[in-house]
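For this section, I looked closely at a protein sequence along with its fold in token form, which I now present.
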Amino acid sequence: MSIWMQCDRAEPIRRRALNQMDVLATHARIGDRDAFSELHKQVLRRDDAAWWIEHKNDAVNVLAQDIELQGRTFMNIYLKASHQEGVKAVARSLL
């Protein structure tokens, strides 16, 4: 597959991850928004099209695993936010 075809496939995946982050960040506790900001930066920095294609369904989860916030893993914060009102909004944004 050519690099241009990979980029065409990867960009919608990256945009979906950014949309998920925006929706979840709006439902996060104020104290946890720095972690969402860091994850947002990581999504923007990740420029490997093959990586986005490989992690089509779990990109946000993979990137979130390494973020820590005051001794808590960001993954715990992310999962908590995901199970709140944000889940419905994320689902709607992906339709």
About this structure: The first strand starts at residue 68 and ends at 69. The CA atoms of residues 18 and 41 lie 10 Å apart. Residues 19-94 form one domain.
